[in-house]
Design a protein that fits this description.
400 residues, alpha/beta, Rossmann fold, Nucleotidyltransferase, domain 5, 2 domains, nine-stranded mixed β-sheet
């Protein structure tokens, strides 16, 4: 018989209090954990969208019922927003004129917008990234129809605040590891994300060219970069946890052992574990409530064997019912290698769930994957499209 249970929900720590719900934390006035006290914004849109965009920005800055605005809930001053007017297919003509902004907000047409021929998302992202400016895209329909919706404004504010260098909340409970590395490859790039939990949170990322598609042949080099970031920031740490998206190949494991054991010898860490977070070909889980079959509760887990857990990272209460999108999809968490195998697999699997609750782009729904591998994948996807910011933005959440 398969053993299992439900992990506790993580406590989130804000500027002046704790809660298990992001929206509740801000509504109670706890404020963000850390970040800028002022943000400079600009808005790029067609001239015909100006009146709608102005309403959106006023609501975003000063708030509406159910959302206190960047000024109220985030304690963040926003100066005069500069507007740049141009048709969406000629946005590149105004980007060179943008100066002294922290985030550029860009109006983009919906896919079914009349006359839509070429998605401006990627080229605009590319051009702004080349100038070192993080960007936030907002669709025409959102600007026209959802500018007064508190949940839309709050999620938009979170993304902008993070891209400007802020951290809305951190985990209030201690994780098993002191530092976490996320690892993923898309196309010919491999990305590592670095998270150090030292009372707050430190974030960074690095990338390398990868000659393979699924096999990470450059895993040795990219892990070395991540370990150097950890050592420069935190010195020696007790335990480093590496999350690899998907299954690990033998050639990768050999390189992992060499690099991580060398890190122990060189005083970067005392111990390390290498964990696979598998999202494909994973069994589905349901919950029966009376005669009704629903999605399981978030945090539900099943022990498949000593070193493998099935973990439900999304579900009830956010997605209680089985709708057109089908059942929620769990992940399999497997310990692939370690410096000391006498480690708590329960804590390793729990931390994957907790880190899925730390996603800063949404206050109302967590993600299926932990932010370690989720953010590595998102950065990989942007790099594949030619969107690559300068190194000064490696510690910012520009990709949300």
């Amino acid at each position: 018989m398969v053993r299992g249970g439900v992990f506790s929900r993580p406590v989130l720590r804000f500027g002046s209090g704790t809660s298990i719900f992001p929206y509740e934390g801000f509504k109670l006035g706890f404020g963000p954990f850390s970040g800028p006290d002022a943000v400079r914004l600009c808005f790029i849109c067609p001239r015909g969208m100006y009146s709608y965009s102005r309403v959106l920005m006023d609501n975003l800055i000063y708030g509406v019922r159910g959302f206190g605005g960047l000024t109220g809930w985030f304690g963040c001053r926003v100066g005069d927003v500069e507007y740049f007017f141009e048709s969406y297919d000629r946005y590149a003509d105004v980007i060179d004129s943008i100066e002294d902004v922290d985030v550029a907000i860009v109006a983009v047409p919906d896919e079914n917008y009349p006359g839509f021929e070429e998605d401006p998302y990627v080229p605009v992202k590319q051009n702004l990234a080349l100038r070192g400016i993080p960007s936030q895209m907002v669709t025409y329909s959102t600007i026209r129809r959802l500018a007064g919706k508190s949940y839309v404004l709050f999620n938009l504010a979170l993304s902008i605040y993070c891209k400007a260098g802020g951290i809305p909340w951190v985990l209030g409970d201690r994780l098993l590891g002191d530092a976490y590395i996320g690892l993923d490859t898309v196309g010919n790039n491999v990305v590592v994300t670095v998270f150090v939990f030292d009372g707050g949170i430190f974030f960074d990322w690095r990338f390398e060219f990868n000659p393979g598609v699924e096999v990470i042949y450059s895993i040795r080099n990219v892990l070395t970069l991540a370990l150097d970031v950890i050592h420069r920031h935190a010195g020696r740490v007790n335990l480093i946890v590496v999350h690899r998206d998907g299954s690990t190949f033998d050639v990768e494991l050999e390189a992992v052992r060499d690099v991580m054991d060398s890190a122990v010898d060189e005083g970067v860490a005392s111990n390390w574990v290498f964990v696979e977070v598998k999202k494909r070909a994973v069994p589905r889980v349901t919950r029966r409530v009376g005669r009704r079959v629903t999605n399981p509760e978030k945090g539900t887990f099943y022990v498949l064997d000593k070193y493998r857990y099935l973990v439900v990272t999304s579900g009830f209460p956010e997605h209680p019912y089985i709708d057109v999108s089908g059942l929620v999809r769990p992940v399999v968490v497997e310990l692939a290698e370690a410096s000391n195998w006498e480690v708590s697999m329960y804590d390793i699997a729990r931390d994957v769930y907790w880190l899925s609750e730390l996603h800063w782009a949404s206050a109302f729904a967590s993600t299926r994957l932990p932010i370690t591998t989720l953010y590595a994948h998102r950065i990989c996807s942007f790099l594949r499209l030619g969107v690559s910011p300068s190194e000064e933005y490696y510690s910012r959440l520009w990709f949300l």
